[in-house]
UniProtKB/TrEMBL annotation:
Gene name for this UniProt entry: truB
Pfam family membership, one: TruB_C_2
Ranges for domain Pseudouridine synthase II N-terminal: 62-214
Catalytic activity, EC: 5.4.99.25
Catalytic activity: uridine(55) in tRNA = pseudouridine(55) in tRNA
Protein name as it appears in the record: tRNA pseudouridine synthase B
PANTHER family reported for this sequence: PSEUDOURIDYLATE SYNTHASE TRUB1, TRNA-PSEUDOURIDINE SYNTHASE
tRNA pseudouridine synthase II TruB subfamily 2 C-terminal domain mapped to chain residues: 270-325
Biological role: Responsible for synthesis of pseudouridine from uracil-55 in the psi GC loop of transfer RNAs.
HAMAP family, per the entry: TruB_bact (MF_01080)
Disordered: annotated span: 1-47
Enzyme class: isomerase
Domain tRNA pseudouridylate synthase B C-terminal: 215-259
Keyword Lipoprotein found: no
Length: 327
């Protein structure tokens, strides 16, 4: 967010007062500011560095893309790195739908320590020796947290409680009560177990539904094992169809700001439906089309020339527009 500041720039009234140098006193002509053309609509797949907030990344992409119309799909904490999907211009209207897609993470859980944020950025609340915890018990604990589960979000999450973000209330010293929510952990695979004195470091890969907190998985695994736990490392490897293979670092994007075109972005993330010229006109005016039997999620609608026209969803026997991208 930016606001204009300073004075209005208006010059004092000197009408009728001749200039001392004998000139006409006419103000010099101002150079007209050249308006920068808007960038193409599409997605930027960023490999977010540690220490940056998702808002920091959006601010940087606004400068690199040359537009204020930039947003992101799915917040990453400052500690986390990896895939952050950024939308530019009309593609910002895709972001809410991309947020709902499946995500992948690599992380490290430290057993034997509990923190007030469920990750390494918080204060340690308790320490317990995890030396006696067997590998088999860790694997059993992970298995119990796989599949459809009820999960309580971290107190420092962005979930709103009585209209205010939970993390703001928690950081003000308030005990925040958050309700458990249904999430799905499609896969929770241990890749390494390392014993470091009384603590255990567990490396894992997780594939999960939208709304799943990996910090909460770390906390709940430690609690189930009776020793406490928190997340010490997190890297998001995938958001829907976009993974680290197509993500670019901030430095790479500063050299060349690569924007994935809207048509490619929609085709990669959603089922595709091609329509006729008449149907394209109907969609462009917010009209509905007959059901296509392509499932319950968003469907990308493309015109005869390959232009992406809209996202729609099936409602009974018709397709209802979710977002229309053409005038």
């Amino acid at each position: 967010m930016s606001t204009a500041g300073g004075n209005s720039g208006a010059a004092p009234d000197t009408s009728g007062v001749p200039p001392e140098d004998g000139s006409s006193g006419a103000a010099p002509a101002r150079t007209a500011r050249v308006k920068r053309p808007a960038p193409p609509s599409g997605l930027i797949i960023v490999d977010k560095p540690a220490g940056w907030t998702s808002h920091d990344v959006v601010g940087k992409m606004r400068r690199l893309a040359g537009t204020r119309k930039v947003g992101h799909a799915g917040t990453l904490d400052p500690m986390a790195t990896g895939v952050l999907v950024v939308g530019v211009e009309k593609a910002t209207r895709l972001l809410g739908h991309l947020t709902l897609t499946e995500k992948g993470y690599d992380g490290t859980i430290r057993l034997g320590e509990t923190t007030n944020t469920d990750d390494a950025e918080g204060e340690v609340l308790a320490r317990s020796s995890a030396a006696q915890v067997a590998d088999e018990a860790i694997r059993a604990g992970v298995a119990a947290l796989t599949g459809p589960i009820m999960q309580v979000p971290p107190q420092v999450s962005a979930i709103k409680v009585n209209g205010e973000r939970a993390y703001k209330r928690a950081r003000a010293g308030e005990e925040v009560e958050l309700q458990a929510r249904p999430v799905t952990v499609h896969a929770f695979e241990i890749t390494a177990i390392r014993r470091e004195g009384d603590a255990i470091e567990v490396d894992a890969s997780v594939s999960c539904s939208s709304g799943t907190y990996i910090r909460s998985l770390a906390r709940d695994l430690g609690a189930a094992l009776g020793v406490g736990g928190h997340l010490t490392r997190l890297r998001r490897t995938r958001v829907g169809p976009y993974d680290l293979s197509v993500a670019r670092t901030i430095e790479q994007l500063a050299e060349a700001c690569v924007i994935l075109p809207m048509a490619d972005a929609v085709a990669a993330a959603f089922p595709r439906m091609d329509v006729s010229e008449d149907q394209a006109k109907l969609i462009g005016h917010g009209g509905r089309l007959p059901s296509a039997g392509l499932g319950s999620g968003p469907i990308g609608v493309f015109g005869p020339d390959g232009t992406v026209l809209a996202l729609v969803e099936e409602r009974g026997s018709t397709l209802r527009p979710l977002a229309v991208f053409v005038p």
